[in-house]
């Protein structure tokens, strides 16, 4: 009898001891949290991890890690497709996408996924997080989330909605989701107008300008995390896309000095590099790189079929994939783009591969797999040309517009100077600025945006016909996934 009681008591002790030690076997993670009852916002480390995760999702290869830039370049006129691979943008290049095309589904999904993460974070900070990190740091973090959300909505508008110039923003835009979704339920939401989505983008960027720090303390963090000048710079792009030129000038004047050499005199000391090659080579953290998405180590690689170098770069020893080569009738045919221009000598090269030895490729991103070249989102050179264009469109042949245009051209080609006589009139100056953008940002995802914001016809290329603004392929169709599950979204945006 005593033996039996002893066994029972031992069992109780073992059970009690196990329950006491279970927390040691399965400790509560300080950064990975399953419990959503405020736990993700219970420590400063967890909150910071969420902020970094927002950047990581923007960095996805389906978004700013490569494909957004690729789609907006190859949709235009400077590229010829080599592979006919529907997974790697051949449908976008040939203007044959539909609601179930890979690019249409994936960019929509990644864009809204990242937006939802931003919304959940902003909501959580308001409810739980601010007392944990303090009001100043909370404002900083929320500003970063709003900056990322603004980029995502801007990116989605460029592909799935009619340009702002078509009806002054009155056309159907996107479902404007501003509250985090954390459970499965009917989340149907009608589209807001293009103007309403742009208004939210500007609001987010204005809030970001107020909440972001003047500097992040190091060249690396000033490149890969948002600071005040990042929000201002991106506003110049947004306002230019909307055709609001006075607002472009107002924003650009905050970070561009009135005369050459043009620099930002407050916040991060953004400025052009003296050599454009430096922007695209390690460590990728120049003062010109206002905001880029990083790939620092192999564990951060964007994935083979997403990287910019995978699409555009090839050489004799490591041919890579080189899905696209430069259209002989595109920008490289511009007689005013001199052979001695540093952007030609550094980035444009004739293939040495026998099968392609008559084709020119782009070497801005020249690291082979695992493709760790940073992907630029916005550079100081763009801010200068945004300001130049806005001034030309509002003031004609303007002295500062000419000086800004010359600053970008002459850092790569000191032998060319644009003057009032050489451009002739406002139209000539605008044409020179647009062509400078075509040269400077080749492969960086601005070419199609430049056509669409001015309601221009996308020129023909190879066997692909020209696409005018009335063509349904001028913009992408909406994602079939959204059409299936969102009962309020309605039909096409065309």
From TrEMBL:
> Where in the cell does this protein reside?
Cell outer membrane
Q: Where is the RagB/SusD domain?
A: 350-453
Q: Which Gene3D superfamilies match?
A: 1.25.40.390
One GO location term (cellular component): cell outer membrane
Among its keywords, does the record have Signal? yes
Query: Which family does the entry's similarity section mention?
Result: Belongs to the SusD family.
Task: Return the protein name.
Answer: RagB/SusD family nutrient uptake outer membrane protein
